[in-house]
Amino acid sequence: MINLKKIALTAGITILFALFIGFMIDAIYQTPKYENYCSQFNHPQPIAKQGIEVQCNTTYDNTAISNECYKQRGEMRYEYDTNNCPKRMHCDLCSADFNKAMDKYNLKLFYLTALIGIIAIIIGLFMSLSIEAIASGLIFGGILTLIQGTVRVFGTLGRYTKPLILGIELAIILLIAYKKKDENKNKKKRR
Q: CA angle at residue 84 from 81 to 85, to 5 degrees?
């Protein structure tokens, strides 16, 4: 028969464990903020007044500069004169710098959540069967924490690294579960 109390307790522990780990890490190791890397925003060119045609004497070709900026994952920034004509432009790499910082943050976060998730799974597996709901909550919470960290870093991983990471995580969970199964068999034989 289904024990709803155990299911509710397991679900609560699972969700709260994963949230607790996520928010605790965020409190200790803060996410990089965009405004710490980019202070200037690219405002669109103002619209010329109706009925007044603006002639810009821009003679430079910015295609090469724009292409190079794009390759570096930067954004073109323009400064306009009083006639709404571009007078200066430069490649702003603040977004690229912010993205690098986020990638580095997410990778560290992945390592940390993977470690915490695996430890929670191991603790849950080796807990007594008399507190099955708590053990199950820790196992599911550890798996959810592991998934949470993996999802954060997944976009920055390479084509071959993604299945490698998932394969390693799956192998670890299967190994832990297999060892626990063997341990339970040995306990039953001793009785």
A: 70
